Amino acid sequence: MSDDDLQQQFDAEVNKVIDQIDTTERQAVQRALDLLNELRAEIRLRLADAGQSFTSSVYKQVERSIENDINSFEQQLQGQLTSDLNKMATLGEALIDNPSIIITGPSLSVSGANVAQIAASYVPGLIKGLGNSANQAIATILRKAVLGVSSIEEAIQEVGKNLKDPGPFKGLGARAETIVRTEGLRVQSMAADQRMKANEPLIKRFGWSMMQAWLTADDFRVRPAHAAVNGWEVEVGKPFLVGGEELRYPRDPKGSAGNTINCRCVARPVVKRMTAQQSWHLPLAA
Q1: Left if phi > 0, otherwise alpha if psi is -120 to 50, otherwise beta: which for 273?
Q2: What is the pLDDT of residues 260-273, one digit of tens each?
Q3: How do the domains of the chain map onto residue ranges?
Q4: 145 and 56 in contact (C-beta within 8 Å)?
Q5: What is the distance between the alpha carbons of residues 71 and 75, in angstroms, rounded to a whole number?
Q6: Which fold has domain 3-206?
Q7: What is the pLDDT of residue 89?
Q8: With a cut of 50, which residues of the chain have pLDDT below it?
């Protein structure tokens, strides 16, 4: 097989895994929003069941039930995020390993540290208390209803607003989406970075150089600092200069929130056939 054929197959496999990463990220976010919509519907139902006799005692019962509902939502989201981190770590490794095998064949070792396990240990801290602001906002709405400032119908309407309208769930929805997207894709980047460093020496022994290129989602949501480095290539292990910050990969934890939160970029592997001069001083394959 010619070098051009190998390179085309390598690039095609990279693109295939990037598509899987994009699909998995969008599905993870949608699952989180679905959980939140289920919570919203459950709370609306509790208010409707309370009926017109929204007394102080009824209010306290409903308030406790809603607190339990929100705690249950947080637990479900925590479990879901842990699962999503595992999927993203696997895809991060696949982004490097799957195309690398095209060049190295069975010589490539695909074992590595489990980045997902490390990241999953931080999940409880990310999710715990996530619904506090929504809980407080709902409590305020309910107090108005029990005091007669507003009707139970108005309370139901206020609580039942969709995730994009101003209401108790809008901020919670945005925060849940940010956590799921950012942390999932961060784990993907960390796993890919780890595998790229592990694979590069073997790739070189087969006569190829490996670089990493910054790739944006290429839409109107891409921040200008990221669009400015789209397509830039750096050596494996070297940082990209993004918005005045050195980032080893998209969503590098060392970067600022403005440079990493909700980032959908990918550091994609790039290989090129080495020249005779470049390969002159390489160690012989073991």
Answers
A1: beta
A2: 999 999 999 999 99
A3: 3-206
A4: no
A5: 6
A6: Four Helix Bundle (Hemerythrin (Met), subunit A) (1.20.120)
A7: 92
A8: 280-286
